Amino acid sequence: MSEVWFYHLERSTLDQVLPELLDRTLQRGWKARVRVADEGAREAIDERLWTWRDESFLAHGMADQPHAARQPILLTAGHENPNGSQALFIVDGSDMSLTEEFERCFIIFDGRDETALQGARARWKALKEQGANLAYWKQSDEGRWEMAA
């Protein structure tokens, strides 16, 4: 079963956290898929990855575009995995099904949004009941990520 890591955003935004986590995933030698249900949010993430740092970008593509299998990072709303990703990032409350093929799943949610917070709690509870290998990460006052559960 996949490891499922919850990232509780309180001090940072998705725009700040997602590129860092994706960069670490690529440094590990893994490919990544980002599941984003909302098309507008997917386009915003697409733009953010191209402009992540002044001196660099994170190479990526959309799962429904040509050459998706060659991309190190894929943005999608669906369940396809043409690039053989080992890591799945789930944002904006996207569908949690079909996660077994991944080494690690990241559920990133905004703790300042009550709906997102309640959704994450419900997911945690359901996954825990299924015996999933869970970890919960939150930011310290200094901004570092700490495993809290």
TrEMBL record:
The keyword Nucleotidyltransferase applies. It holds the Pfam family DNA_pol3_chi. InterPro entries: DNA_pol3_chi, PolIII_chi_sf. Its EC number is 2.7.7.7. Keywords: Nucleotidyltransferase, Transferase. It is an enzyme of class 2 (transferase). One of its GO terms (molecular function) is DNA-directed DNA polymerase activity. The keyword DNA repair does not apply. This is DNA polymerase III subunit chi. It comes from Brevundimonas staleyi.
